[in-house]
Amino acid sequence: MDIFALTFIGLIIYILILVLIKKLEYGKRIRSNNYNNCCPLCDDPLNRIRRYNRDHILEYISFKIFNLKRYRCSKCGWQGLRWEDKFKRGY
Predict the structure, then answer these.
(1) Cα dist. 7→20, 26, 29, 82 in Å?
(2) d(CA 72, CA 26)
(3) How far apart are CA 78 and CA 11, in angstroms?
(4) How many domains, in total, are found in the chain?
(5) 3-state SS class at 9
(6) Domain around 12
(7) What does the pLDDT profile of the chain (91 residues) look like in tens digits?
(8) Residue 34 burial by CB count (10 A; 0-12/13-18/19+): exposed, middle or buried?
(9) Which letter does DSSP use for residue 30 in this model?
């Protein structure tokens, strides 16, 4: 098969996977009764911090489909992207 066709098919599959992940709401904001954006570990509010260079690279690789902002919890010290430790809560 042609290398261009394989590359094109691979790119289409990659984009479809990204859209599927977005539709499944992976990395969705955690909300509580008091706060709109909660820590995945302790339910306290998150504060925005500066992103790393790898966060910018991830954003471009994912075609800016996801909200890849870096946060820090002032209570427990957790820091990271919103979706990094989501499975520790059992979601």
Answers:
(1) 20, 26, 34, 31
(2) 19
(3) 34
(4) 1
(5) helix
(6) 3-88
(7) 799 999 999 999 999 999 998 888 776 777 778 888 888 788 888 889 998 898 889 888 988 888 788 889 888 888 888 766 554 444 4
(8) exposed
(9) P
